[in-house]
Write a structure and sequence with these properties.
alpha/beta; 7 helices; globular; about 190 residues; 7-stranded mixed beta sheet; 7 strands
Length: about 190
């Protein structure tokens, strides 16, 4: 899968920037995605689509709804590419996550939260996501020096500490990367 990811990532994003999911993080993300065996999924925070690409490659039957507030012109190339590569499986919604329940009307298996990184934003995205009855929630940036505390505080507030695995993944040089994931199993 990683060879396919590298190939498609180079077509998806010709000039990676801060916030893009590199190959090392994609491998870690894929591990959690596969564990869910999700068929219906929501991603809050699309950026330019590197995590969406990972989910679509890792979960061959998933239908993915990605939500982001970035100006559509900034993501159009990535949205068009993923829509073409994964017909009927990828849907992009240019919207704030506060309208999540207006956009997704059916229960989902898996939610990936990587949107507003403030405590209030993470809490709002979590409280809305729970209403979709997911079996799993995965948070990005659980080990990020600025954002990680908000993620972990929301998990504690929800009473999910014992259901959570935190992974401060290492990069290809063996150093801890700055963002990491928190995986919550609600089943």
């Amino acid at each position: 899968m990683m060879d396919t990811y590298r190939e498609l990532f180079s077509k998806l994003i010709s000039n990676p920037t801060v916030g893009e999911l590199g190959v090392d993080a994609s491998e870690s993300l894929s591990k959690y995605a596969v564990k869910t065996n999700a068929k219906m999924m929501v991603e809050i925070g699309f950026n330019r689509g590197s995590s969406a690409l990972t989910f679509l490659l890792s979960l061959p039957e998933v239908v993915l709804h990605s939500i982001d507030i970035r100006p559509y012109e900034d993501v159009k190339g990535s949205v068009d590419f993923l829509t073409e590569q994964f017909p009927g499986r990828f849907f992009y919604h240019h919207s704030s996550s506060e309208f999540l329940l207006d956009i997704v009307k059916e229960p989902v298996d898996f939610v990936f939260i990587d949107g507003d990184h403030s405590y209030a934003g993470i809490l709002r995205d979590t409280e809305l996501s729970v209403q979709l009855n997911p079996k799993y929630i995965l948070y990005d940036d659980a080990c990020h020096p600025q954002h990680g505390h908000g993620v972990l505080s929301v998990i504690e507030r929800m009473g999910w500490t014992s259901k959570t695995t935190v992974d401060c993944y290492t990069n290809i040089h063996g150093r801890i990367a700055s963002s990491g994931f928190a995986f919550v199993e609600l089943v």
